Amino acid sequence: MKKNNHIRLSVVCCLLSVVCCPLLAQSGAPYIHDPSTIVECDGKYYTFGTGGGGIISDDGWSWHSGADRPGGGAAPDMMKIGDRYLCIYGATGGGLFGGHNGRILTMWNNSLDPQSPDFKWTKAIEVASSDGMEDCDAIDPSLLFDPTTGRLWATYGTYFGNIRLIELDPVTGERVKGNVEKDVAIDCEASALIFRDGWYYLLGTHGTCCDGVNSTYNIVVGRSQNVEGPYLDNVGRDMFHGGGRLVITAGDRVCGPGHFGRTVIDEGVEIMSCHYEADFDMGGRSVLGIRPLLWKNGWPVAGERFKGGTFAILSERRGYSLEMAVDFQRIELPRRGGWRIDPNEPIVPVPNQSLEDVIGSWPDGDIAVRCADYMFRPHQLWTIVPVPEAGGYLSNPYFKIVIEGTERALTATANLELITRQADGSDEQLWRIEQLTDGTFRIMPKSIPGQDGVNTRYCLYSVADSTPTLAEYDFSTDNSKWNLRNK
C-alpha cells in the first residue's frame, strides 16, 4: 500500500466508513481497502482488509461488516489449507507508523465465522521482516499453495524496494528452515501468485494508491514455469526489470484497482477480486470489486461487469439464436435480383420488423423456446434486467430475461425445459449469468420447480442445434456456452 505524500491514513479510513450503494456495485456495505482473496467458509464468503476486520457475504453479492481478524496491520491474504484457514498480513511497514520497518506474520483459525465455537486465532508467527534500510518493505503479503508440489509460497513488498518470494511450511505456517528470500519483481506492490496450466503467474499492483479518484493503481502480470521466476510479460520483459502485462485498469466509473485475488467457482468459471481506490458512483469511496476472470492466450484478463441490456442469445454450439417458438413472420418487400437493380432508383431504408407487427399472431399462455437462424426479429431479442432485491452470487445480482418490449419471461420448468410466460417474479424466472474464462457465458436458473435450494447444477444447454433445454453444466462442451450479441 503506497501512500501519496499528501494524503494521511486517516483520510483512507474515512473512505471505508460510509453506507450507500448504487445499482450493480457490490450490494450492501462493500467498503474495504487492500482486500484478501475471497474465501468461503460454511456457505458464506469472507474478505479481510487493512486495519483489521473485514466483510462477509451470504451470497457473494451483498456484503456487510463483521469479519474478525486481530493484529491490525495492512493488506492481509487468506487461504484455506485442508480444514484450516491461514492468514498472512503485514504489521506496520508501507511507510505507515513504523516507516519501512515491516514484519510479515501468519496465524491460523479453524473457522472464519466469529459465532462458531471453532473460531479462535492462533498466536501470530513472524515469517519475514525489513529493517527500513534494505531494498524491501515487508508489507502486502500473499499466499500460493502449489497444487503440483504441495509447497507453500508467499510474496511481499512494495515500491520501496523489491518484491520478495519466501517459502512457508504448509502445516505450521512458519518459514521453511534455511529458506532464503528471492527478489522477483520491482516497480509494483500488493503482489499475488497463482498457478494455472503449468504456469506460475505473478501479479503486481502498479501506480499510486490512497488518493481517491486520483489514484492510478492498476494490476499487471508476468509468468514463469518456475515458481522462483524469472517472471516475463507477453513481450518478454522481466518483472524484475519493470515488465508486466496489463490485467485491469480504470474504467466503468471506477479507478485504482489493486490487490488481486483469484477465486475458482467451477471449471471455467473464475472471478478476480480487488479493491477500487474510488468508485465514482459511490462518492469516490474505496470498495470491493469483483470481475469475471478471463484467460486469453494463456494470460489473465479482467472481464467486464455484466449489467444487462437487450441482446440476441446465441449458442456457441452452432451460433443459432435462442427464440420464442412462434411462426416466422415475413417482412413484405418486393424481391430484387442483384442483376436487376436500377442505379437511379432512390434508396429507401427497410425498417426492422417491430413488435407491433407480430405480437398479435402470438398465442396466449406459455410458449416454448427453441433455437434458429438469427434474423434480428422481435421473438429473438431478449432484454436482460438486473433484479438486485432478489439476491445474487459472486459478481452480480440475479437477472430477469424477457422478450424485448414485453413481460414474457424466460422460465425454467420442473421437467428441465424452457418456456416463456408472464413475468411473476418467481425464482424460476431469475437467472445467474456468468462470463466464463473463454469469454462465453453460462446462464443458469436460480431455481428449478420441485427441486430444493438454489440451483448450481443445471444451465441453459443446446442439446441439439435447434433444441435448448436445461442440463448439467460442462465447460468442456460448447453446448453449455452462450454469447450475448447487442441487437
Question: What's the gist of this structure?
Answer:
2% of the residues lie in helices and 42% in strands. The protein has 487 residues and is an all-beta fold. The strands form 9 sheets. Strands 32-31-28-25-22-35 form a 6-stranded antiparallel beta sheet, with no helix packed on it. A 5-stranded mixed beta sheet has the order 1-5-4-3-2, with no helix packed on it. The protein has a 4-stranded antiparallel beta sheet with strand order 6-7-8-9, with no helix packed on it.
What's the shape?
Answer: elongated
Beta-strand share of residues: 35-45%
Distance between the termini: 43 Å
State the low-pLDDT regions, or none: 2-23
Strand count: 35
Number of helices: 2
- Oligomer description: single chain
Query: Structural class from helices and strands?
Result: mainly beta
| C-alpha-based Rg, rounded | 26 Å
Helix content: under 10%
- Specify the biggest β-sheet: 6 strands, antiparallel
Task: Kindly report the average pLDDT value.
Answer: 92
Strand order of the largest sheet: 32-31-28-25-22-35
